[in-house]
Amino acid sequence: MTSILEIKDLVKRYDGGFEALKGVSLDIQSGEILALLGPNGAGKTTLISTVCGITTATSGSVTVDGHDINADFRAARTLIGLVPQEVNLEPFETVINTVTFSRGLFGKRRNPDYVEKILRQLSLWDKKDNRIMTLSGGMKRRVLIAKALSHEPRVLFLDEPTAGVDVELRKDMWDIVADLKASGVTIILTTHYIEEAEAIADRVGVINQGELLLIEEKTALMKRLGQKQLKVELQEPVADVPASLAAYDLALSDDGQTLVYSYDTKADRTGITSLLSDIAAAGLTLRDLQTEQSSLEDIFVGLVHKEDAA
Amino acid sequence: MNWTAIRAIYVFEMARFFRTLAQSFISPVISTSLYFVVFGAAIGSRIQEVEGVSYGAFIVPGLIMLSIITQSISNASFGIYFPKFIGTVYELLSAPISFLEIVVGYVGAAATKSMFIGVVILATASLFVDLQIQNWPAMIAFMVLTCLSFALFGFIIGIWASNFEQLQLVPLLIVTPLVFLGGSFYSISMLPDFWQVVTLFNPVVYLISGFRWAFFGLADVPILVSLLAIAGFTTLCLIAIWWIFKTGWKIRN
């Protein structure tokens, strides 16, 4: 696979001195779906805005398919489609006019067949002559996507496409993204939702306070996120983990009161049933059971703490 | 130049104009008619001919200037302010187009609209008074240049404005007084000596004078000075726009 988007040491410092991006480097492969996860104010939108030309970088470089976004902005921007987070649309325009306008704005010749195809794909064809202000919120989001796709981009940025969207529409959105990937479009999306990254991304990047904390294959990250812990509180404290339970790789709390078992929720067998019967067989009495899952927040906290310590 | 993009902006902006075609045409027709009723019939009948031209005909060039100047400014400033206000400006900034192309698209559309209005007023006026235009090419040239330069000026206001009040501020406080005091309804020679000098600091005087010269062959200031004035104003606007383009002032963070 080849990189279609290369971001090197990107820094964005606002006039007030606030650093929204602190030297982000990122390579995006052609045809992949990358999900950028991060809390509000992490710098996700600033990153997208800088790549798309809405804000200018303080330093660093970005190339799209080899074209620098400043020196060769026409070639670079032609390849990029942007679906912004805010639903920014001309309220009095019709769907078809606003989508046709976007295509022209990006320098592409009129092509009613292609525009029709996009509108049908997004279930907007019936509404093509409707004014935008008469559409529902979900439909407006589709119009934003149609505008971004109207000029046949090879890289599509989706800035929180499912923020404030109902479950059904979210599923629709995921299907749309899957279709786009199938047609060869590279997709970068930002989201708060771990399930969203899980459902559609190939790779996941975690961004916080203007820094890219990690970027890895979704499967590897999910494995870390899929870990759960079972805490078994005993009636009487023990000095050591009984030998008969060695296979479970248990951890014992300092007071000897709690056994901690880590397991993978995605595995065929979690081993909980046999663990509990083996604990009983070892002659231990249970007082309480508790399960905990490492969440995205835990990973954030872990990563942020690691940084503070460094 | 990305002509496809310029065309897209131009067509999109003109569509807004044609959607409200009736309003766009009716309001200048009514206001022109009112000016003729008040100044032409009621007051004009008491005024002697001005340098051989009936007063009704004399005010026509000024009336057209008054409308195309205010229309050019409001069309262009609104045209670029509206995307800023509703947020669709993101698309202009992320498109593979230069600022120059954005300006050509928006200013071109705004100037075209005010040209339409100018022609409508001219047609309406010719229903009320007997009009003879001595120099058609000069008349058209003055009209086109005025529409273009004030649309450029309006574009700058639209970029500068952070709210609707500011959008109205410059046209209301500066432009309208300058146009009214720029000899739209009188000849400079009718003023006392002192005010004749003062009025020469009003740039609109040169525009109206030049435009009136194209109609009747009479001018308050030499035609060459009029041409220089409008060329100078256009240049100033172009420099300001070039600077905005260079710095991304008020548009790009």
Can I get a quick summary?
The complex is a heterodimer of chains A (310) and B (253). Chain A has ten helices and 14 strands.
Layout of SSEs?
The complex is a heterodimer of chains A (310) and B (253).
Chain A: E1 3-13, E2 19-29, E3 33-37, H1 44-52, E4 59-64, E5 67-68, H2 73-78, E6 80-83, H3 95-105, H4 112-121, H5 137-149, E7 155-159, H6 167-182, E8 186-191, H7 194-200, E9 203-208, E10 211-217, H8 218-225, E11 227-234, E12 251-252, E13 258-264, H9 272-281, E14 286-293, H10 296-309
Parallel strand pairs in A: 3-8, 3-9, 6-7, 7-8
Antiparallel strand pairs in A: 1-2, 1-4, 4-5, 9-10, 11-13, 11-14, 12-13
Helix pairs in contact in A: 3-5
Chain B: H1 3-19, H2 21-43, H3 55-58, H4 60-86, H5 89-94, H6 99-128, H7 136-160, H8 164-180, H9 193-199, H10 203-216, H11 223-247
Helix pairs in contact in B: 1-6, 2-6, 4-6, 4-7, 4-8, 4-10, 6-7, 7-10, 7-11, 10-11
Q: Runs of chain B with pLDDT <50, length 5+?
A: none
* Main beta-sheet strand count, sense and barrel state of chain B: none
**What does the average pLDDT of chain B come to?**
88
The value of Rg of chain B in angstroms is: 19 Å
